Amino acid sequence: MGGLSDLFVMKERMNHGTSPIMIILEKASILLTLLIIVAIGLALNLPSWGVGLMFGLSLGPVVFGHYYLIYIRPILKQQKAKVEE
Questions:
Q1: pLDDT tens profile 6-52
Q2: Per the CB 3.0–4.6 Å rule, which of 11, 21, 54, 59 could disulfide with 41?
Q3: At what angle do helices 4-14 and 73-84 cross, to 10 degrees?
Q4: In whole angstroms, what is the distance from residue 15 CA to residue 48 CA?
Q5: Cα 6 to chain centroid, rounded
Q6: DSSP secondary-structure letter at 45?
Q7: What DSSP assignment string belongs to 33-45?
Q8: Is residue 37 within 8 Å of residue 58, measured between CB atoms?
């Protein structure tokens, strides 16, 4: 697995022809997912530190999951298609 700089290079390569609206929707999707996680924590009647812990522990996987689905997976598919040719 590449480093953080590789992730930003992949993101730049995928965003080359992307409209700003799609980038805003990507960020909104991440925020909406995190809002749902906070709402689940509140619905479970967790104390405030529990909701914060739940939010903090899910922040990394949510952001990486979005980046993987939007940026990394399409590039891996392109590389796999080039290798098969």
A1: 666 666 666 666 677 877 888 899 999 999 999 999 999 999 999 99
A2: 54
A3: 80
A4: 37
A5: 15
A6: T
A7: HHHHHHHHHHHTT
A8: yes
Residues across the chain: 85
Q: Distance (Å, rounded) from C-alpha 32 to C-alpha 67?
A: 15
Cα separation of 70 and 7, whole Å? Answer: 11
Closest CA to 31 of 74, 66, 4: 66
- The sign of the CA dihedral 11, 14, 16, 22 is negative
Question: The whole model's pTM is what?
Answer: 0.72
Q: Who contacts 85 (Cβ-Cβ below 8 Å, separation ≥6)?
A: none
Owner of token pair 């509140």: 42
Joined tokens for residue 35: 């809002």
